[in-house]
Amino acid sequence: MAHPFQMGLQDATSPIMEELLHFHDHTLMIVFLISSLVLYIISTMLTTKLTHTNTMDAQEVETVWTILPAMILILIALPSLRILYMMDEINNPSLTVKTMGHQWYWSYEYTDYEDLNFDSYMTPTQELKPGELRLLEVDNRVVLPMEMTIRMLISSEDVLHSWAVPSLGLKTDAIPGRLNQTTLMAMRPGLYYGQCSEICGSNHSFMPIVLELVPLSYFEKWSASML
Fold first, then answer.
1. What letter would DSSP give residue 4?
2. Which residues form the Cytochrome oxidase subunit II transmembrane region profile domain (predicted)?
3. Domain ranges of the chain
């Protein structure tokens, strides 16, 4: 999860988030090079009294500053499209979980099980245990197996919500009357925190999401105890 004064993105837990981090660094380097070049040109024009009229009016210069930005846009667009297709790909999910947004809590249903569903409310500040995080802890965590493809079906029963977990690279809108889906796969166990990312009313900031990714054997024991 994020920590105070953090400058970059959260550490990646899923393959998709790793790709997004690489794309972020790739794009940021291109922006840095462009900014440096523009700053150098501006500073040179302001500090020198020499002007080369043939260079300023040459068609070669116009050709370069037309082709070069097009090539830069292609270098940004191709990796971006690749990641978009990867995010939409569904590879035979091992588990399906339906998430419903409410004002102002989440409800979860494990559709592969007959009667495994629960509501997830934020833990009030006065009920927090030592070490728990204010405004991020919930009474019922979403327990999921790691290293398995999991399909999340996301919708809402009242207003617009958004189910987002940054370290997994997930952000999907919960829209009333519409069922959106996304895929997640965590490569290591742990607790992963998220929040509703769509302004949904007065208690919008009190809709945390907590995913507990565990080995498959632990998940099977947990699901058996919940039934």
1. T
2. 1-91
3. 15-88, 95-226
